[in-house]
Amino acid sequence: MAKVRNQKFVTPHFRVSYPALFEPDAPEGQEKKYGVCMLFPKDTDISALKEAAKKAAINRWGPDMSDWPKPLRSPFRDGDKDKPDSPEYAGMVFVNARNKRRPGLVDGKKKPILDRDEMYAGCWARAELVAFAYDKAGNRGVAFALNHVQKVGDDDAFDGRGKAEDAFDAIEGADDVTSSEVAVDDLFDEGTASPSDDDSLFD
Fold first, then answer.
1. Residue 158 counted as domain residue
2. Which CATH number characterizes residue 26's domain?
3. Domain hosting residue 120, numbered range
4. Single pTM value for the model
């Protein structure tokens, strides 16, 4: 059977986890690569990913599944079973995608993302991937190469910081006085402590 080039495709929306999109990264002892862990809610239609994975396996080992090596590693993992201590993985199917080459990063208007803080763990994105089969050092399976990522929305960050508006109660009368309405001289009334070098600790 003649092999064909595995096709590129775009995923449904997913929540970003463990992004390594500006610098390559890897667990100790492994080759550093760019990548992202994609968290798909279990009600998401990920048939495009499954079909691409199946085609990659057929391209490598043929159409008869009985001829495929066993065991064969699947790229699809159940967050409830495999990450029971990580609440952000609850109700999710997670899939890793990596590449030695840095992926292209764009926002919803297809403008390049240059600020790495924009692509944080917890935001929503979609990706262009290519599925491929591998057989190396006794490990066999299907995985996904990461080509590009597009950010599609914000959400609570997985770092636990949350949003500033959720951290405080509203202050009564806060709208009555703003920093622009305070006279400059009032900032330096006699007896007011002047800035010191220690202030840099709280910048």
1. no
2. 2.40.50.140
3. 8-153
4. 0.78
